[in-house]
Request: fold
Amino acid sequence: MQNTLGDLNNHLFAQLERLSDEDIKGEELKEEINRAAAVNGIASKIIENASLVLQAQKLMDNRVSADTNIPKMLEG
Reply:
């Protein structure tokens, strides 16, 4: 399975559309709200992980290499 942040975005908007459905009422609405809360929790973790990966990549891009290149953030 190869999901992307774009897929997550689409899934979140689909969930929002289900919650916006005015025909859903009562127990079905409660189930959808619970599902949305679960999706939100998982989505938050995925976004936190993606942010961590991005931060790590930025650190790797800006590190001093063994051949003594000046880090990109200190150049010019």
Summary: The helical segments are 5-20, 26-62.
